[in-house]
Amino acid sequence: MRDEPPAARGAIAPTDAAPQCEFVTGPRGAGKTRWVQRRIRELALGHPGARCAVFLAEEGRTRMEGFCRETPGVSVRRLLLPCMCCPGLADLPGVVRGLVAEVPPGWIFVEAPALAAAGLMAEFDRAFGWPRKLDVCLDPGWTLALRNDSLAPFQLALLGLADLVIPSPPRVQLPRSVSGAASLTHLHDPA
Predict the structure, then answer these.
(1) 63-114, pLDDT tens digit by residue?
(2) Which CATH number is 14-185's, of 3.40.50.300, 3.30.450.40, 3.40.640.10, 3.40.30.10?
(3) Contact 42, 50 (CB under 8 A)
């Protein structure tokens, strides 16, 4: 597991042969969407005109679709995951091939739930063999389980494969009169 601050990673430079690929995973609410948006903004600053593709394997509505509509050079596609334990049914290689043939991106981001990430990466690697990174976003529950040495085997496996681990957002205590809740976990922009 490699746990480097984002600034130490440097910019990702695309190759002529294949787009750079970054899988982003973690539990629901851990900041995966915000992390991908941050990475795209960094790329836009360092590589004006860069084309990015985002593949969402998450259910429900996310802020990512609106972000992609508002950000030039970013395409988004949804992957249908009928079952978390069968990511092969999502046909990630077919969806990627379709988009690459239509509008070749320099960077590909795959935002995936933690339970499906390893299977999606294996399918992707078999199909393409392109260079890729794995970023794992932690939430407070995963952070606590990591500290207590009580992570599930699939969590340990993901962390063992990670190129970058993004720490869980801090917990902010609010007075009950502000929101009716004792605490609020908010997403932050890890520096």
Answers:
(1) 777 788 888 888 888 887 766 666 667 788 999 999 888 888 999 999 998 9
(2) 3.40.50.300
(3) no
